[in-house]
Amino acid sequence: MFSSPTPNLTSNRRRSNSEGCGQVVIKGSSCLPVSSSSMDSTHLGEISDQSSQMSYTAESWSVLVEPEFYNSLDKQNVKRQEIIYELMQTEFHHVQTLTIMDEVLRQGLLEEVQLEQDVIVEIFPCVDKLLPLHRNFLMAMEVRQQDSTFPKSQRNFIIQRIGDILFQQFSGAGASEMTSLYAEFCSRHHIAVGVYKQLLQSNRKLQAFIRLQKKNLDMKRREIPELLLLVTQRITKYPVLLERLLHYTEDGSVEACSVRRALSGLRSVLAGVERGVSERQRAQKLAEILHRLDSRSCTRTKSGETFSKQELLDTHPPRTLTHSGPLTCRTSSGRLREVLGVLMTDVLVFLQEKEQKFTFAALEQKASLVFLQRLIVREVANEERGLFLITESSVGPEMYEIHTGTREERNTWLTHLTKAAHSLSEEHKQAKTDKELTVQKLQNIQECLLSLDMQVCVVLEEKLRVCANYSGQSHTDLLVWPHPQNTPQGGSLLMEARREVEKLAVALMLWFHPFIWPPGNDSKLLTGLEPASSPQLSHGHHLLFKGAVQTLTRLLYSLQATVIIQDSCFEVQDLLLQRATLLLPAGCGHGKENQGVACAQRQKCIRPEAGLRAENVSEAELLHQDDDGGPDCCPEEIEQSLERLRQEEERAEEEVERLREEMRLVDREREKLREEEIRVQRENLEVHQKILHLHSPE
């Protein structure tokens, strides 16, 4: 990741900003104009001299303090102060380097050379974020130094505690920020140098600007690539300084504990930077390979499936590069063919270069990719550079023989392949266990919902029985009951309820016919029907009303039970659909995956119609099946199941919409009947009042 150690910087640095305690050397364009006329060789030094109380010109702490004060201290304390001063001095130099890059070179490239902002960011990545990070670190150490100064002499100071500052810098949020910034900076270092060198060859303004900056004493005749290298090397200097500081700190003290914790955090930062750089570099390399891969090129697997560039790209989560390098692969006829091996998360791809483009390697009857799931890797006997790759699939095993350039490369490939195959095997076992747990959980949910639905239906039937006992009704049972293999239909019940409402409406109109319609009204609806002669309810009308109300009550209770049962079916189906979507393997069904998620997240007011409980059971059984058949059958079955669920849901949506419309019609009819009943009651009251008024004595 990092280059060779940084050469020691000379000690003729001027002083830093005192009040800012590391607000460092240059502050704003007013202090340091970027025009070429003002870039004289002493400008940075003058600004540093005007703004700092802490001098870093001394080679060591023993030279900085007074001799009498130095001689009064023991050797261990002197060594410790020397290390702390070296840490502060090198941090000051680092901040000064970042300041030159940010406030001199970056601003100069923008305003004088007039480069695009994107190009400048490529040359100086993250510099504007690294500068305040290290300024604040230096500021904290300088404040501690000022607090440790002896009143009798400003030159003499002893910093007793600095571990807390180090721990704060190399742990928590500070460590996370440092890890992220240095991982990005170091991973883009070679790109920054390449962009700069390419521009320097053709841009005359840039050439003139760099020649002028070489005259600057603070630049030390260093060019931009050297400054970039210094920044990448800085983070590797901290562990040595902290280890030396811990060595000369009293063991068992609070300070030693803080320094030890800071050193542990710093090592984690270095490991994180190393890991981040490696990941970014592999991602960049994979992007370059895929960019050069011909989109028209494809290969056919042993099962007959076509695999192209699109399948490499369209995976969730995206495939990452594990390792790549030149290989020699033996074809079906025994010939050796040079290829580029690209090992990704779950597949090994063999590519060949043709006219500056990559294509899938032609291995005659073999596919130019190997799936790592259930992959067996073996060394070739009596061949220190060869490997056998044995892969299993639904159509049988297939063997590849590959060779590397050296034995070390063979061992590297063996390690990466074995590790990747083992990781996928563990993931496969975990996924299988998760499937079994999910199926068991879904079955438990189904049983629980079925039990609750049974309890609800029992309560509804009891209510129906109470109403029936009061009215003398003979039928006291619900028309529907929950069943694990059959979902009740609500459409027929609703139609029956509608017909009963119509009968009840006709009966009411017959009862109130002489009071609703005036004589002479020849309504076709009432043709041939004899209206009641009085508002008193006759025996025939009483039986008609009673039967209609009893039947309607039974239908409505049954319809309520149907809706509750369908709610339970839909909840199970929703859970199953979401889980089946998550179980789709990488690279399979990518076009339909988003559709499955969209269907699973539809409005929960949609209630599935007939047969959904049976679908749920069959889909749960599908999830429970052992998927040792390979990646060729599982995706197709899951996609077919999802398609059936989507079709069933669409039918259910249409049916529910129709049922809702019918319910709205029933509600409107019911409201009209209520209004009509109130109006008739008022008219009857008026008629009775008139009759009483006529028969009353004057």
Overview of the structural elements:
With 698 residues, the chain is of the alpha+beta class. The protein has 22 helices and ten strands. The chain has helices at residues 28-31, 43-50, 61-64, 67-71, 75-111, 117-123, 127-147, 163-169, 172-187, 189-202, 204-213, 224-234, 238-247, 254-292, 309-313, 407-471, 491-511, 513-516, 539-582, 590-600, 612-624, 634-695, and strands at 298-300, 306-308, 321-330, 336-344, 347-354, 357-360, 369-371, 375-379, 386-391, 398-403. The strands form two sheets. Strands 3, 4, 5, 6, 7, 8, 9 and 10 form an eight-stranded antiparallel beta sheet that branches. A two-stranded antiparallel sheet has the order 1-2. A hairpin with a 2-residue loop joins strand 4 and strand 5. Helix 5 packs antiparallel against helix 12 (224-234) and helix 19 (539-582) packs parallel to helix 21. The longest helix has 65 residues, at 407-471. The termini are far apart. Residues 1-53, 514-534 and 583-633 have low confidence and may be disordered.
